[in-house]
Amino acid sequence: MKTTYKIDPAHSTAQFVVRHMMITNVRGGFSSVQGTVVYDPENPAASSVEVVIDANMINTLEAARDTHLKSADFLDVEKYPTITFKSSSITPDGDGDLSLKGDLTIHGVTKQVVLKAEVPSAETKDPMGNARIRNHKDQAERFRSHVERGA
User: What does the alpha-carbon distance between residue 36 and residue 136 come to, in Å, rounded to a whole number?
Assistant: First the structure.
């Protein structure tokens, strides 16, 4: 059965890794992610995803770099305040993951991309009674990482 879920901005981020000057990787993310997921566990192809990210909420843990990335040299957040993704097709890839094909718009330029996503968990209820789905494999890997580090 197809169900529509609202992306919880308080518990969601969009993260990235980019190669910097062929020397190192720069990691960062956006802390303001909103949108909807329409998910049908029996027929993932009938599912869809729409996401809106506040480009001004970029964080690479380096304030000067973040200011530069927000400038007209890169994201130009004054002119293009959001980054959007709208899926056009979703297909299982056989490893418990999904391929999300769709339009990604950054800095006013739209390109078709394929993003990887894990099949979400079965629907559960949070303590307030709201229906939730989550990325359960990622949660398990983070927990395992903390246990292995003794955190």
Answer: 18
pLDDT in tens, 78-133: 999 999 999 999 998 877 788 899 999 999 999 999 988 876 655 566 677 665 55
Question: Edge-to-edge strand order for the sheet containing 14-20?
Answer: 14-20, 24-30, 58-59
What domains does the chain contain, in order, with CATH numbers?
Answer: 3-149 (2.40.128.110)
Question: Which tokens hold the place of 113?
Answer: 């991309």
**pTM to 2 decimals?**
0.78
